[in-house]
Design goal:
This protein is an alpha+beta fold. The chain has a single domain, classed as minor pseudopilin epsh fold. The chain has two helices and eight strands; from the N terminus they run H-H-E-E-E-E-E-E-E-E. Strands 3-2-1-5 form a four-stranded antiparallel sheet, covered by helices on one side. It starts with a helix and ends in a 12-residue tail after the last strand.
Length: 197
Amino acid sequence: MLDFQQGWLMLSPYAKLKQFGFSLAEMLVVILIVGILAAIAVPNFRIWMINSQIRNAAESISNGLQRARAEAVARNTNVAFSLSMAAPQDSSWYVYTISPASGIDSRLSNEGSTAVSLTVTPTGSTTVTFNSFGNALLTNPGTVVPATGAAVPATPFTTVGVSAVGGTKNLQVEILLPSNIIKMCDPAAASTSSSSC
C-alpha cells in the first residue's frame, strides 16, 4: 500500500526522475570540442618535435665535445672530436685518440635527431682536437678518422649550427677560444639573454 504522499509522487507527471549517465547530445559536444582542440594542437606538436630534435642534436654535439676534452685530460694525450658529415649530412660524431688511433665514444644521428642538418664554421672542417690540458688545438694533428677512414682537415671547427626544416628554433654549439669554453647558444636570442651567442 502506498500512503498519500508516495502515491502522489509515483502518479504525478511532474515528478522528477533521477538521470544517470549522459545524453547523446552531450557526448557529441564533447567529441566536437576534443576534435577542435586536436586540430589546433597537431601542427604545434609537429613543430615541438622538430625543435626537440634540434635541441637533442645540439646537446649531443656539446656533450661529445665535453667528452673529448675530458678524455684528453684524463688520458694525458691528444683526443679528437669528429663530426660524420656523411651524405646526407647528419649529426653523428666520433671521439678518438690520435696516437694510437683508437675509438673512445660515438653517437649516431638516428638516436633521436634524424631531421637536423649541420652548418660548420669554418666551412669544410669536421674535427677539433684537444690536448692534454683540455685546450683546443689551432691545427688538427690527425690525418684520418679511425671509425670512418675520412680525411681530417687541418683547420679545426669553432662553431656548429644545428637547424631543421620546419623548426622554429636554431641552435649553435661554439668553442670559445682562447678560453676553450664549449657553449650551446641560440643565435636568435637577444644579446642581453644568457642563451645568446
